[in-house]
């Protein structure tokens, strides 16, 4: 007669199953986080001297202030965009960010900061519906008609943006803005782990589209 599994046997099975699920989950997270690294190999630059020229640069938005101080992510992205412009590597800069609230406008803040640094007003285009990296990249193609883009942000975001661009039939490379030290940027780096998993799901399983599309817009000639 076959003996029924004991309580201890059931507990052991549940533990083993849980460990198996955990290992699979960790493996998928690791895989999703490595995809942007692989996609961006040879496409990221730290110096303008070696940076290929492009018609369109895409600068990703963030708040200009954090806890009453200037947000260094914002400042470093602006500095990087100015370097690229002064080096003559782009013809137009798209500043893409969040403008969901009346008194919160990332693109206008970026545009003002770039103008203050000498970038001509008529070479800056605002994308007010860049609610996240995915939206900014896809809208650069579907709304502004850019098949090739130079993404400008910190390395971690550039890697993810290049993966997203490639997944949407675009050619992309990136200019890396200065990063924030690990201690100050720890929460951002931690969020990036989840953002890359969401990126993988958006591209491969969810058929995600930007929150807002709308009419196409013409970039400056």
- Global mean pLDDT: 93
Q: What count of helical segments does DSSP give?
A: 6
User: What would the CATH topology be?
Assistant: Rossmann fold
CATH superfamily: HUPs
Total beta strands:
8
Question: Nutshell version of this structure?
Answer:
This protein starts with 6 loop residues before the first helix and ends in a 15-residue tail after the last helix. With 221 residues, the chain is α/β, with parallel strands linked by helices.
Describe the overall structure:
By secondary structure, this protein is α/β, with parallel strands linked by helices. It has a single domain (37-206), classed as HUPs (Rossmann fold). Helices cover 47% and strands 17% of the residues. The chain contains 6 helices and 8 strands. It has helices at residues 7-39, 72-86, 106-116, 133-142, 155-167, 186-206; strands spanning 44-45, 54-60, 65-66, 69-70, 90-96, 124-127, 148-154, 171-177. Helix 1 packs across helix 5 (155-167) and helix 1 crosses helix 6.
Q: What layout of secondary structure does this protein have?
A:
Layout: H1 7-39, E1 44-45, E2 54-60, E3 65-66, E4 69-70, H2 72-86, E5 90-96, H3 106-116, E6 124-127, H4 133-142, E7 148-154, H5 155-167, E8 171-177, H6 186-206
Parallel strand pairs: 1-8, 2-5, 2-7, 5-6, 7-8
Antiparallel strand pairs: 3-4
Helix pairs in contact: 1-5, 1-6, 4-5, 5-6
Record keyword descriptors for this entry.
single chain, Rossmann fold, six-stranded parallel beta sheet, alpha/beta
């Amino acid at each position: 007669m076959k003996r029924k599994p004991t309580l201890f046997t059931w507990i052991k099975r549940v533990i083993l199953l849980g460990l198996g699920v955990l290992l699979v989950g960790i493996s998928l997270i690791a895989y999703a986080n490595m995809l942007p690294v692989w996609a961006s190999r040879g496409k990221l630059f730290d110096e303008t001297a070696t940076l290929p020229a492009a018609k369109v640069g895409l600068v990703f938005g963030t708040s200009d202030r954090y806890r009453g101080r200037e947000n260094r992510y914002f400042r470093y992205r602006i500095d990087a965009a100015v370097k690229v412009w002064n080096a003559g590597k782009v013809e137009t800069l798209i500043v893409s960010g969040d403008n969901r609230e009346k008194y919160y406008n990332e693109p206008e803040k970026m545009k003002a900061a770039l103008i203050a640094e000498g970038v001509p007003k008529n070479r800056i285009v605002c994308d007010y519906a860049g609610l996240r990296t995915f939206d900014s990249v896809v809208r650069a193609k579907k709304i502004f008609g850019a098949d090739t883009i130079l993404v400008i942000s910190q390395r971690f975001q550039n890697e993810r943006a290049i993966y997203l661009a490639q997944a949407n039939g675009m050619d992309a490379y990136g200019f890396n803005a200065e990063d924030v030290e690990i201690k100050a940027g720890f929460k951002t780096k931690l969020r990036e782990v989840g953002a890359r998993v969401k990126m993988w799901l958006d591209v491969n399983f969810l058929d995600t589209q930007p929150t807002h599309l709308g009419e196409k817009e013409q970039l400056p000639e």
